[in-house]
Design a protein that fits this description.
The protein is 37% helix and 15% strand. It has 12 helices and 12 strands. The protein starts with a helix and ends with a helix. The structure holds zinc ion.
C-alpha cells in the first residue's frame, strides 16, 4: 500500500503541476493505466532518466511507430534465421483482417506453458516491440543463455513459451496511422462515429487526428480488456464505441478477445504475463482470484527485476481478471511498462528494455521449477 500511495501522490502532484484538465481521471483499473489521460492532454509522471538507448542488434529494431507490418516482416526474418526453433501460429483474425500471431519457442509436449502477450490496448505499442525483442533474445541466446543457473536450452526442453506480440493489431494501426490505418470502410465509419459521440459527451475536445493517437480499443471501438467474463455485467456501460472504456455488447463479443479465450482453454498454463503501458506498476490481484499466492509470487519476482511497484488492482473485465477467476484458474500478472503517457516516444525504450529484458526468462524458470 505504501507504494500505491507514493505513486498516487506523485500522480496528484503531476496533475497539480500540469493543471487538471477535463478528461483526466485517476482510476486503478486492471490492465488500464492508473492514470487515464483523455485525448488532447498529456500527463508526464516521473522524470525519464537520461539513460542512453541500448545498443541495437539483430532483426527487431526500435522505430518511432513499431507497426503491424514491421512485426510481420520481423517474424518472417526470425523464421528464416531460427526456423527450427520457433513455430508461428495464427490464433485468429482481427475485424480488419490482420493476423493474431502466436510464436512458440520450446517444447509444447512437456506440458508446461507460459504465455506473454502485448498490445491488447492499441496505443500501448511499445509492448509489441518489447515482446518481439524478448522473442528474438530467447532465440538468439537459446544455446548460450542461462537464468538462475539453468541454461535456456534446458528450460526450453521442459517448457514452451508462447509469445503473442500484438493481440490488438487494428487498435495499434489506428493509434499509429489514424483512419488511414483501417482498411474496412465500415470500421472507419464506426471509428468516426465513436469520435462524434465522445465529442458530444465531452469525453474529448481533441481534433480527430489527436483523438485517434490515443486509441486503446479494437477496430470497432471495444476496449478488449473490458470484454472478458470477469465482473463484466457490473462494468459501467458506455453504451457506444469509443477510443477507450467501452465494454462491448456482450462478453467476448470481439474476435480478438475470443481468440485469447480459445488459446487459454487449449493448454494448462503455468502463467500468463500481460504487457500494458504505462506506469511502471504490476497488477497482480483481482476479487475472487483463485491463484492469489502464485500471482503474488510472480508479481514479486517481476518486481525484483523491473523495479516496478505492486498494485492489487480491481475493476474487472480484463484478461488477467478472467484468467485468475475462471474454473481452471491461471496465475497471471499485468506489467505496465514506461514512465510517460501513451503513445510513448521511442526514447522510452531506454527504460523499458533494460527493465524487462530478463523477465521472460525469469518467469519461464519459475514455471519450470514448480
Ligand atoms: Zn493497457
Amino acid at each position: 500500500m505504501r507504494d500505491f500511495r507514493t505513486y498516487m501522490g506523485a500522480a496528484v502532484l503531476a496533475l497539480a503541476l500540469t493543471g487538471a484538465a477535463p478528461g483526466i481521471s485517476l482510476a486503478a483499473g486492471p490492465g488500464s493505466s492508473l492514470i487515464t489521460v483523455g485525448p488532447g492532454q498529456t500527463l508526464m509522471t516521473g522524470t525519464a532518466s537520461p539513460s542512453e538507448m541500448p545498443e541495437e542488434w539483430g532483426v527487431v529494431r526500435t522505430a518511432d511507430k513499431y507497426s503491424y507490418t514491421d512485426m510481420e516482416q520481423d517474424i518472417r526474418e526470425l523464421q528464416a534465421q531460427y526456423g527450427s526453433r520457433m513455430t508461428v501460429n495464427v490464433i485468429g483474425t482481427s475485424l480488419d483482417g490482420r493476423n493474431l500471431y502466436e510464436i512458440v519457442v520450446g517444447n509444447p509436449g512437456a506440458g508446461t506453458h507460459v504465455m506473454i502477450q502485448g498490445a491488447i490496448h492499441g496505443r500501448e505499442y511499445m509492448t509489441p516491440l518489447l515482446v518481439m525483442k524478448q522473442l528474438e533474445t530467447a532465440l538468439a541466446q537459446y544455446d548460450t543463455g542461462r537464468y538462475g543457473g539453468i541454461s535456456y536450452s534446458s528450460l526450453f526442453d521442459r517448457a514452451a513459451v508462447h509469445f503473442l506480440p500484438m493481440v490488438n493489431p487494428d487498435g495499434v494501426s489506428i493509434s499509429q496511422f489514424g483512419l488511414a490505418g483501417i482498411n474496412s470502410p465500415q470500421l472507419r465509419e464506426t471509428v468516426e462515429e465513436a469520435y462524434r459521440k465522445d465529442l458530444e459527451e465531452g469525453r474529448t475536445e481533441a481534433s480527430l487526428d489527436r483523438y485517434l493517437d490515443y486509441w486503446k480499443a479494437n477496430g470497432r471501438g471495444v476496449d478488449l480488456n473490458s470484454n472478458f467474463d470477469a465482473g463484466w455485467e457490473e462494468l459501467n456501460d458506455l453504451g457506444h464505441p469509443s477510443f477507450a472504456g467501452y465494454k462491448g455488447t456482450s462478453v467476448c463479443s470481439e474476435p480478438e478477445s475470443m481468440a485469447l479465450v480459445n488459446l487459454a482453454n487449449k493448454y494448462q498454463w503455468s502463467l500468463v504475463l500481460n504487457y500494458h503501458s504505462m506506469g511502471e506498476v504490476i497488477y497482480w490481484d483481482y476479487e475472487g482470484n483463485k491463484v492469489q499466492d502464485q500471482s503474488r509470487e510472480l508479481a514479486e519476482l517481476a518486481a525484483g527485476i523491473t523495479g516496478y511497484s505492486l498494485l492489487p488492482s480491481s475493476g474487472g473485465g480484463g484478461y488477467k481478471d478472467w484468467l485468475q477467476t475462471k474454473e481452471l484458474p491461471v496465475p497471471s500478472i499485468t506489467l505496465e511498462v514506461g514512465s510517460v503517457s501513451c503513445p510513448m516516444p521511442r526514447s522510452e525504450w531506454a527504460r523499458v528494455w533494460p527493465q524487462n529484458e530478463q523477465v521472460w526468462a525469469a518467469v519461464l524458470a519459475w514455471a519450470v521449477r514448480r
